[in-house]
């Protein structure tokens, strides 16, 4: 099942909520099964952009209601929103910055197929395939505008003696996106390394048992650090498990 046919279960129908509030920006916790903005193909899933328009009148005047970046339909967690047009541009510029300046730090939690090195990094190129393809192509060489970098550390190693559909059978990894984020950067990147994310059928990841939100990539936008302020979204259930 790919993202265009993703159907959230009834228990996934929670609403976005503010997890941190500043005068010029705030951070939402995005639930699984919500588009950030209207999808190219209507599938009935709600959008954060529409929710912002309905919940906060002032946001309607801003591009995409102030959303600074986007998360996939199946990705949960921190979503940054600006309150003014000037701050929207400033945050967008810094969200895409590299090591220089005051770039915004972006960290995710992911369940990757067991065997990931305890610490590592990659710098790869992510290019769109033919029109209509949901996947991206990963290569070591390409245009600089396609390049995306990540570094990671394993927080919990996967267990070999339990069912392969159990979240504890996967490595729990903290992944930092360095510089501009690319489409499917973490998902496709780990897939290219031979460690696709749990539930990510698009990149040949093993499906999780139904009780763990089947047919989605186990990926959560965990932390954003903006001008020294660290904002954290509550961990999903699969990240709370111990061996």
Structural features, described:
This protein has helices at 48-55, 85-95, 185-192, 237-240; strands at 17-21, 25-30, 76-82, 105-112, 119-128, 136-139, 147-156, 171-178, 219-226, 229-232. 13% of the residues lie in helices and 29% in strands. With 243 residues, the chain is of the alpha+beta class. It has a single domain (3-236), classed as Pseudouridine synthase (2-Layer Sandwich), CATH 3.30.2350.10. Mean pLDDT is 87; it is low at 1-12.
Topology:
Layout: E1 17-21, E2 25-30, H1 48-55, E3 76-82, H2 85-95, E4 105-112, E5 119-128, E6 136-139, E7 147-156, E8 171-178, H3 185-192, E9 219-226, E10 229-232, H4 237-240
Parallel strand pairs: 3-9
Antiparallel strand pairs: 1-2, 2-3, 4-8, 4-9, 5-6, 5-7, 7-8, 9-10
Question: Summarize this, please?
Answer:
This protein is α+β, with helices and mostly antiparallel strands. It has four helices and ten strands; from the N terminus they run E-E-H-E-H-E-E-E-E-E-H-E-E-H.
Largest sheet: 10 strands, mixed
Helicity range of the residues?
A: 10-25%
Tell me the number of strands. Answer: 10
Instruction: Give me the CATH superfamily.
Output: Pseudouridine synthase
Query: How many H/I helical runs?
Result: 4
Unreliable sequence segments = 1-12
> What coarse outline follows from CA principal-axis ratios?
globular
Percent of sequence in beta strands: 25-35%
Mean pLDDT: 87
Which structural category fits the helices and strands? alpha+beta
Radius of gyration: 17 Å
Q: Quaternary arrangement of the chains shown?
A: single chain
Give the H and E element order.
EEHEHEEEEEHEEH
- Name the CATH architecture: 2-Layer Sandwich
CATH fold naming = Pseudouridine synthase
Distance between the termini: 29 Å
- Look at the structure and give the CATH class: Alpha Beta
Number of discrete domains: 1
